[in-house]
Write a structure and sequence with these properties.
Strand order of the largest sheet: 1-2
Largest sheet: 2 strands, antiparallel
Radius of gyration: 21 Å
Bound molecules: tryptophan
Structural class: mainly alpha
Number of strands: 2
Shape: globular
Length: about 450
Amino acid sequence: MSNKENFGSKFGIIAAAAGSAIGLGNIYRFPCEAGANGGGAFFIVYLAIVLFMGLPLMLSEFVIGRRSGKNPVGAFKALANGSKGWGVIGYLGVLAAFLILAFYSTVAGWTIDAVGKSIINYYHGLDKATIQNDFQNLLNETWQPILSEGIFIFLTAFVIVKGVTKGIEKYSKILMPILFGILIVLCIKSLTLPGAKDGLVFFLKPDFSKITGKVLINALGQAFFSLSLGMGALITYGSYIAKKDNLTSTAFAVCISDTLIAVLAGIVIFPAAFTFGIRPEAGNELAFVTLPMLFDQMVGGYFFCLIFFLLLTIAALTSSISLLEVPVLYLTEQLNMNRKKATTYTAITVFILCVISSESLHDGSPLRLFGASIFDTLDMVSSTFLLTIGGLLTVIFLGWKMKKSDFMDEYTNGGTISMRLRKPIYYIIKFLAPLAITVILISQFIK
Ligand code: TRP
């Protein structure tokens, strides 16, 4: 542990973990999931899951990471008190990282494409049908998406090779607050549109009769995805947290800022979508058609559009860094590969998967698996199953395998800070979270 770099400051680790959490998951995926799962019903379930499962799982990952000072595979092995097999949680995480990165980079590619279109003021004056058409054409193109995905994966690899504190901390500190500011401006604009009321009612008013097993699992998957949980990304970050830092306040800050950004994105997108006649179930178009149309109606739209998509690209980058860091750290720490080599190999693998993912979105493409495009299947398998199962095993590990005294010691920084909530938190991790995740998972298989 001692020869490992620590994050420079308290704000550094919050910024880096929030940088990991805040990304396309908040601005692209959250509205997609909320729209497809009944709006308000999804929203209320989502909030409850963040509080009762997301937050405790985040603490668990931080504790496991900082206690062991290792990558996820090594961490579970080191803390398992000699019993074998727990490293498998780490391997699941390495697998999830590849699958998530593949479709994540596809979406990041569209974001980079939107940056290009914003620069040339392409969206100006276009009607909905044209923007929709252009977006569909982009999905059907071969080289354009590959190029932008390639750029994105290259940038991710570049930051990773440069090393953790220097690379990640520097970028996320200044930029995320600016993204937040732009979202606030966008909210104000969106709320003045004629469809604002309908959009808000859809997004925020819970209709409890719409809460189904599917809504529960999708909210669970989205919460873990958005908070970067369930695959060890925050275990690797935890391994860089200084011993004196307060884990609870760090986790709180990350959960709150991540959720705030997702809620703001919903408040921006749904009123605008209802105004422009874009269905809430429209999926990819919710962000990539609605937002350009919204910008075009604003004073200073050119400027806001450009900065927004640029910052979204950077937000995606600080997230993809945390994803790629998982396999890279595994290869360097467990298999003694050097960092440059490990990054190159993983980045090339991700790029190949990503090309398959984006080509699978062509009209009539044969690249389908389980009745959906490979892009959608990668998203579903990784978030809905790998992250939830990874998260479940992580809380079980912490609650039932790791020594309670180890947890308490790490959680209270060796007893130096008093944590009044340590007992309830421990019992949530030990009983409530595993039970709730199991019930939600099993409910998918009973019809
Ligand atoms: N949370 C990020 C987002 O919302 C994506 C992400 C980064 C992630 N690291 C992760 C998702 C680890 C799951 C696990 O965009």
